[in-house]
């Protein structure tokens, strides 16, 4: 994949604010298999998305970029990123912020639990049109 921004990652407009809070347990969120070594769960708010991504050792997320700002928190394991022309390993307890539009890729160096926050929510993840991640 080249350094072109992925299509269909942004909503047409910000969502209006919710009028109610919502409590969610990860155990109640469906696990979505993306490819043999990658599964994820999504919780979506009005203008923010939380994703729990489970990557087995060797899982690869190909080079991509999107207009959404991203924060990645590694709960367990380690991911090696190629970002902004640099190689960077993010390990348990570390957080990586990725500006909107910055191309990046990652490989799981060990079994990893990754929590990603996107603002605004990733429309391609919500609609299943994220072929780059599904290996299609």
Report on this model:
This protein has 136 residues and is mainly beta. It has a domain at 52-134: Jelly Rolls (Sandwich), CATH 2.60.120.10. Helices cover 7% and strands 44% of the residues. The chain is built from two helices and ten strands, in the order ββββββββββαα. The chain has helices spanning 123-127, 131-134, and strands at 32-35, 38-44, 49-55, 60-64, 69-76, 78-83, 86-91, 95-98, 104-108, 112-119. A six-stranded antiparallel sheet has the order 1-2-3-10-5-8, with no helix packed on it. It is globular.
How would you summarize what this structure contains?
This protein is mainly beta. It is built from two helices and ten strands, in the order ββββββββββαα.
Main sheet summary: 6 strands, antiparallel
Mean pLDDT across the residues is: 91
Q: Given the helix and strand composition, which structural class is it?
A: mainly beta
* Full CATH superfamily name of one domain: Jelly Rolls
Low-pLDDT segments, ≥5 res:
none
CATH topology of one domain: the name is Jelly Rolls
**N→C terminal distance:** 12 Å
Using DSSP, what is the number of strands?
10
Radius of gyration: 14 Å
Shape: globular
Under the CATH scheme, which class of one domain? Mainly Beta
For the biggest β-sheet, the strand order reads 1-2-3-10-5-8
Oligomeric description of these chains = single chain
Distinct helical segment count = 2
Strand content: 35-45%
**What fraction, in percent, of the residue positions are helical?**
under 10%
CATH architecture descriptor name of one domain: Sandwich
Question: What is the chain-wise order of helices and strands?
Answer: EEEEEEEEEEHH
């Amino acid at each position: 994949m080249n350094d072109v921004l992925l299509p269909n990652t942004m909503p047409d407009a910000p969502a209006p604010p919710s009028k109610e809070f919502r409590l969610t347990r990860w155990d109640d969120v469906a696990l979505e298999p993306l490819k043999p070594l990658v599964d994820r769960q999504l919780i979506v708010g009005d203008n923010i998305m939380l994703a729990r991504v489970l990557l087995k050792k060797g899982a690869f997320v190909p080079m991509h970029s999107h207009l959404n700002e991203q924060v990645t928190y590694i709960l367990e394991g380690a991911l090696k990123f190629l970002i902004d022309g640099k190689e960077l390993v993010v390990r348990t307890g570390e957080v990586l912020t990725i500006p909107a539009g910055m191309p990046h890729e990652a490989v799981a160096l060990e079994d990893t639990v990754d929590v990603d926050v996107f603002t605004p929510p990733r429309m391609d993840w919500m609609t299943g049109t994220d072929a780059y991640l599904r290996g299609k």
